Amino acid sequence: MDLNIQVTDSSRAAVVSLAGELGPDTAPAFRKALDHLCEMARPVLVDLEGLTGIDGLGLSILVQAFRQLRRHDCALIVVAPTPAVRQVIAESGAEDFMPICRTLDEAAALVTVLGKRGTDTTSPTSRRSTPETGPS
Hints:
The protein is α/β, with parallel strands linked by helices. 39% of the residues lie in helices and 24% in strands.
């Protein structure tokens, strides 16, 4: 099982492009790349166009990075997953909370929008208000 990981930096976000299989043998390298980017506390676009497969471990790493970046008010956006990879993401329920875009341009535009209003990708109706904070 092989995985090619390419990390590039744009003015708005870091881009991690994956090609190959993301599984038990390749997950540690993916985790290391995402951990490094999460430490930088800036938006990350994960381009999955070249990814042919993903297992539960790879998906778990993606979700953990999403949560870690969210704690830093940054976004992790999944870009262009293949149909097989998209199915795994959908079956896990991760697409319910993790933004998925068709293209890098679409993801970059979303980063711009999120930067103007924070990184909360939930709908306004799903946010709760409390007596102390009011509507969020």
